[in-house]
Design goal:
Elements: H1 2-37, E1 52-54, E2 60-62, E3 70-76, H2 85-96, E4 101-107, H3 119-129, H4 149-154, E5 173-176, E6 182-186, H5 195-205
Parallel strand pairs: 3-4
Antiparallel strand pairs: 1-2, 3-5, 5-6
């Protein structure tokens, strides 16, 4: 009888200890979840020129390098149905670069994994298939939790009520004038040859 009582007592103590451990574990998980959900997101850069970037060869600098230029910023991809737009983007660069336009290509793998390559592979593809000479950059994220500061800036609707929309797919185009103001956002189906885009570029260059 005493043995049975001891067994029951041991079982009760074990059960209570297990409950305490489980309770504490749940509290830790809840605390972690709450701290994660209330974490302050990184601040949106105040100016495009303070944003740091890495080019396709690994060189690091800020976009202040392009201060005074009109920028057409494009999230590019090598295996997308819009990939042939590289040709039109290169023509835009050749046509308007002497007037101050710079096309900036930012490879991204966010949409249907259409840019799986390394930076070296992307550079090789662009230069051999489309003879791209406009600046290309290291692969980044243009959407989601890992969004690059540049795209956090471009897509912020509070900073840019008219044009600060999220990237919808590969080959979205953001037009920034020579003062650093976002003056246009064009979707994937707006080709580099589209009259609306060319008109906006012409207006930004004047």
């Amino acid at each position: 009888m005493r043995l049975n009582k001891r067994i029951v007592l041991v079982a009760i103590i074990a059960a209570v200890a297990g409950f305490v451990v489980s309770y504490n574990a749940v509290r830790r998980l809840k605390s972690t979840a709450e701290s994660t959900s209330t974490a302050t997101p990184p601040p949106v850069p105040a100016s495009i020129y303070e944003i740091g970037v890495r080019d396709i060869d690994g060189g690091e600098f800020t976009l202040d390098r392009y201060r005074g230029k009109t920028l057409l910023i494009v999230n590019v991809a090598s295996k997308c149905r819009f990939t042939p737009q590289y040709e039109g983007l290169q023509k835009l660069y050749q046509t308007y670069s002497n007037r101050g336009l710079v096309v900036l290509g930012f490879p991204a793998n966010d949409f249907a994994m259409r840019e799986p390559g390394t930076d070296a592979e992307i550079k090789e593809f662009c230069t051999t298939q489309y003879q791209v000479t406009f600046p290309l950059f290291s692969k980044i994220e243009v959407a989601g939790e890992g969004i690059h500061p540049l795209y956090r800036y471009l897509t912020d609707a509070r900073l840019h009520p008219e044009h600060g929309q999220a990237v919808s797919w590969n080959f979205n185009k953001y037009l920034v004038d020579s003062t650093g103001k976002l003056v246009g956002h064009f979707g994937s189906t707006d080709t580099p040859e589209s009259p609306a885009l060319i008109q906006a570029i012409e207006a930004a260059l004047n």
